[in-house]
Design goal:
The complex is a heterotrimer of chains A (104), B (320) and C (398). Chain A is built from two helices and six strands. Chain A is mainly β. In chain A, strand 3 and strand 4 form a beta hairpin. In chain A, the strands form three sheets. A two-stranded antiparallel ribbon of chain A has the order 1-6. Chain A has a domain of 70 residues: 2-Layer Sandwich (Alpha-Beta Plaits), CATH 3.30.70. Chain C has two domains: 244 residues, Thiamin diphosphate (ThDP)-binding fold, Pyr/PP domains (Rossmann fold); 135 residues, Rossmann fold (3-Layer(aba) Sandwich), CATH 3.40.50.920. In chain C, helix 2 links the parallel strand 2 and strand 3. The chains are: A mainly beta (104), B alpha/beta (320), C alpha/beta (398). At the A-C interface, loops of A face strand 9 and helix 9 of C.
């Protein structure tokens, strides 16, 4: 990667692009990977609320469980950024999230 | 007033970008994610040197979507004062075209309670319309877990290690809320990350009340490496802090005091302390001392409110 | 708010009041100030202006000088025009913030009525405090009389806010000798000054429309280039200071630049100094000229960026020169400005005899006859044919 020259950088080290840490995929930090069981998930929002990374996505994706329960939203883990802290699994009131060892 | 009555009402849009390098499970990350959401677009944020600043703005990347500045360690409040003054006068001269821009200062416990105390006091005394957020992980965590004035008594840190002669911090935790209250500001609140609604409502209120003057929100943010807890235990520990009475969620709206998280049955402090490696060396006598101090504080709070908002200790009977 | 407009008139003002009037003339937006002798009357005058409605500015009465510079940085970061003033212990207390102000490329202007450093504590003037701030990346200009204080502070805003510079500027002058002495000062019409220094925010600012991150953590792959940008900005400042000095002359009829010269055209010897001492030096030059010594003088206006080329151009064909510094160093027997001159001359391969004099430390009284004495020393060292190794501490009781 060629790094920019002194005259190609904004002055004072000011960063002009807001939120560009999205280019850093912190998902590579993980040892354990959370998996949401969409059948068990009650869409209570708690995992999404507590995730330190904001790497649980609240999607307008309808879902019907095998028992016929209908939901308008679905939570999915964004594995690009999930660091595998496991707070979601610990706090899920119905234990719908399990932590699985990452493939090496 | 309560702005959000349930977590279903909380705003969806992420304003703090993923990809920052805060530890997995960091409570400060949770706090900052929600602060950024509540702050909205029209807020300038200044953060002191520390965990949050270093992990969210490592050149050439920034996790912030707000206009943001870091100047130094001890002066978040002073920098915010300058921003506040600048916006005020530019508005008067017709040179500020972005309306009612809020000013938020963020600092850790080191950057507030110790080195940042003077700048904070000055800002509060001058009455700037700034919201100050203190994320308290109870030590200088970013530099490697050294004790600060906010470190609780007996806690292990690298500069208050547990040895043969000295075991942990000798002094009590500095009462920063007491210091802030002495400045007679419009809004002072304590909260912690396990109680997201409490935290978010207090962020919103603190932001609204900046129209009256400086506001202060003190968040207990457990630290995984610093407190020696598991990455997934952040919320559990934060909840236990409140459930044992070691941390009380309250607010002062001008001088009106309110405990915002009632605890009808209090857990013994042992439940909170035993989960943290930094308290592993505590003797029974020391734990009793801590229990006594918490009991006294709870009594004082209940007397202030005039009602038993924090209940008595009830040992959980576990069946063998 | 209405501001009182002064038509161009001459007033009797102290250096400090001249500084306050200059800040008012440019319609400064934010003043962050903490009192310290001998700067206090600047703060007082500005407070008076604001209280009377003559100046619409936010006065931030900070609780320390460190917070003064921090607040100045915050205000400049949102695009306000900022002014502050301090010296001595206050300047030292804000030391880390000086580097941060210049590193963030914010054009703050600061008046510094130079005062000696503790310990032991002294409230009297010398330039050791300014010298200790020279490395901070600030442009350092030195005024030699109250008129220059007023004129240079106005120019400082134009220089600092130039898009090829974007650096903070300090205007220093002798504490008490200049800060508290009444002198005739021509004050220009405020409106004309504002036309000379219009408010154009040339630097990136904090606003919700284009959210930027200022002051990030920078690693070894990036830091060097960012600092080099500052090196280049300082270099650009050499031209900008000269240009603004010329433009100031065109508009207001008083010429400025990186340095002042006196009777150098046919000079064989040169005396170099700065601040109030320059006025003494000019008198001594006249006296020596009457005695037949072909002496000229250089009064340094810009201490940083140092006017290397100009100094070399004047000195290279002279027989000898003497530097009279009102600051001293410990641990190297060359005084601060003399060191800058020696380094410059050597680099340009100019070797001429010279002698280094320190005077006025802690406001030790300087007399014109002392400067006449230094001119005699200069002539003597020319005869010797090589630089004088020993530094002369003039006025010291030995």
């Amino acid at each position: 990667m060629t790094l920019p020259k002194w005259y190609e950088m904004p002055l004072a080290g000011t960063i002009l692009e807001p939120g560009n840490t999205i280019k850093i995929k912190t998902g590579s930090w993980r040892t354990f990977k959370p998996i949401i069981d969409q059948e068990k998930c009650t869409r209570c929002r708690i995992c999404w609320v507590y995730c330190p990374e904001g790497s649980i996505l609240e999607l307008e994706k309808p879902y019907v469980t095998s028992k016929g329960k209908k939901f308008n939203i679905t939570y999915e883990i964004n594995y690009d950024y999930c660091k595998g802290c496991g707070i979601c699994a610990t706090e899920c009131p119905v234990k719908a999230i399990t932590l699985v060892r990452e493939e090496v | 007033m309560i702005y959000y009555k349930s977590i279903k009402e909380l705003p969806r849009e992420e304003r703090l970008a993923s990809g920052h390098s805060m530890c997995a499970g960091c409570a400060a990350a949770i706090a900052m994610r929600w602060l950024a959401k509540i702050a909205g677009e029209n807020a300038i944020i200044t953060v002191a040197t520390g965990c949050v600043e270093v992990t969210t703005t490592s050149y050439p990347y920034t996790a912030w979507r707000n206009p943001w500045i870091h100047s130094a360690f001890e002066n978040a409040a002073a920098t915010a004062s300058g921003i506040d003054a600048g916006i005020k006068v530019l508005k008067r001269k017709g040179l500020w075209r972005w309306g009612d821009t809020k000013v938020i200062a963020v600092a850790g416990d080191g950057g507030t309670v110790d080195i940042g105390l003077q700048a904070l006091s000055g800002m509060l005394e001058r009455g700037h319309n700034v919201m100050y957020v203190l994320y308290d992980n109870e030590a200088y965590m970013n530099t490697g877990i050294q004790r600060s004035g906010a470190t609780p008594k007996y806690a292990w840190t690298t500069t208050t290690p547990v040895g043969k002669v000295l075991k942990g911090k000798l002094q009590i935790k500095k009462d920063i809320v007491g210091i802030v209250l002495a400045h007679r500001v419009p809004y002072v609140a304590t909260t912690t990350v396990a109680y997201i609604l409490d935290m978010v409502n207090k962020f919103k209120k603190a932001l609204e009340y900046t129209k009256y003057g400086p506001t202060f929100v003190h968040i207990l943010t457990p630290c995984i490496p610093g407190w020696r807890i598991g990455e997934n235990e952040t919320i559990k520990i934060s909840k236990l802090a409140v459930e044992t009475g070691m941390w009380i969620n309250f607010e002062y709206e001008f001088s009106k005091f309110k405990v915002t998280t009632r605890v009808p049955k209090r857990k013994p402090v042992r439940e909170y302390l035993k989960l943290q490696g930094r308290f592993r060396h505590l003797t029974d006598t020391e734990i009793e001392e801590i229990q006594r101090i918490v009991d006294e504080n709870v009594k004082r709070i209940n007397e202030m409110v005039g009602e038993e908002v924090i209940g008595p200790v009830v040992e959980e009977k576990t069946s063998e | 708010m209405e501001t009182t407009i002064l038509a161009k008139r001459r007033y009797a003002l102290t250096g400090n009041y001249a500084a306050a009037y200059a800040a008012k003339a440019v319609d400064v937006d934010v003043v962050a100030i903490y009192p310290i002798t001998p700067q206090t009357t600047i703060a007082e005058k500005l407070s008076e202006f604001v209280a009377n409605g003559e100046l619409d500015a936010e006065l931030v009465h900070v609780e320390s000088e460190h917070s003064a510079m921090s607040a100045a940085i915050g205000a400049a970061a949102v695009g306000a025009r900022v002014f502050t003033a301090t010296c001595s212990q206050g300047l030292e207390l804000m030391h880390e913030m000086l580097f941060i102000a210049s590193g963030l490329r914010l054009p703050i202007v600061m008046a510094v009525p130079a005062r000696a450093l503790s310990a032991p504590i002294s409230i009297h003037s010398d330039y050791c405090d300014v010298v200790s701030a020279r490395d901070s990346g600030w442009i350092v200009l030195i005024a030699s009389n109250a008129q220059e204080v007023y004129d240079l502070i106005i120019q400082a805003f134009k220089i600092g806010e130039d898009k090829n510079v974007l650096l903070p500027v300090m205007v220093a002058y002798d504490g008490f000798l200049m800060s508290h002495t009444l002198e005739p000062v021509i004050l220009e019409d405020d409106y004309e000054v504002r036309k000379f220094v219009p408010k154009e925010v040339n630097w990136i600012t904090l606003n919700p429309e284009k959210p930027v991150t200022m002051g990030p953590l920078v690693g070894p792959d990036w830091y060097y280039e960012i600092k080099y940008q500052q090196v280049v900005a300082m270099r650009n400042a050499l031209n900008v200071i000269n240009k603004v000095g010329k433009d100031f002359d065109k508009k207001f009829g008083r010429r400025y630049g990186l340095l002042k010269t006196y009777r150098v055209e046919d000079a064989e010897y040169i005396i170099i100094t700065y601040g109030a001492a320059w006025e003494f030096a000019m008198e001594a030059i006249d006296k020596a000229r009457n005695d037949g010594v072909k002496i000229g003088g250089i009064g340094i206006t810009s201490m940083r960026p140092f006017p290397e080329e100009e100094i070399v151009k004047i000195l290279q064909d002279k027989k000898a020169f003497v530097t009279v510094d009102k600051a001293l160093y410990f641990g190297i027997s060359t005084s601060p400005v003399h060191m800058d001159i020696l380094a410059t001359l050597y680099k340009y391969d100019v070797r001429i005899p010279c002698i280094n004099v320190v005077h006025g430390i802690g406001q030790r009284t300087m007399f014109v006859k002392d400067f006449v004495e230094t001119i005699k020393m200069c002539v003597k060292v020319a005869e010797k044919g090589k630089p004088e190794k020993e530094i002369i501490y003039m006025g010291l009781r030995t």
